Amino acid sequence: MTRSLLSQRHTALMALSLLLAVACTAAPAPVAQPTTSQPPASPAVSAAVGSGSLTDPGVTAGGAQTAAGGQTTAGGQTGTGQVKPDPSPGGPEEPVVGGPGGPAPIDPEAQWKTIQRRPDLESPRPQAWDHLSLTPDGRTLTVYFYGGVEACYGLAEVRVARTAGGVATVTLVAGTPPAIGDFACIDIAVGYKTTVQLDEPLVIDGSGDGQE
Predict the structure, then answer these.
(1) Do 119 and 156 contact (CB within 8 A), yes or no?
(2) Is the overall model pTM greater than 0.85, yes or no?
(3) N or C end of the chain: which has fewer CB within 10 A?
(4) pLDDT for 68
């Protein structure tokens, strides 16, 4: 009797184990579902959703709205796509406007220094002149020329003569100051002018106006 009961229990346990093995084999394995990560919402969208309002995609958190042409205008206003001049200190510089009088005129006489003739010069030699000017009465002649610095250069005299054909000849005579010693002369050109009073007019106005 006892052996029969043990045999039945053993048979029942074997059957239960077989059923459990079949059940585990037949059950499908769980399939893993893909998960997608959502990007964090921007502060502006989160704030709008939290307050119950919807935010226009063209409006940013700072209240600026994207306009046509890719330009952004402040305060949510729609722009025209045109770029306005930058008024900031780092923007383009304004053109400099001169005064009503413009630049001061340059006096052409300022570059010519008046030189006095002196008779004590050594090694006299002819000196070429640059140009002449004559007063309306034809009696005052101003000669313009270039020479060296006065420490090493001087003007001895101005000769005015007329040829047989009536042509006026103007000759400058330059020289070297006496006893300059070992003074180092600078090789530089200086503009000079000298005035000569003529006994007779060098040029006469053919109209007769202003003649005595």
Answers:
(1) yes
(2) no
(3) C
(4) 46
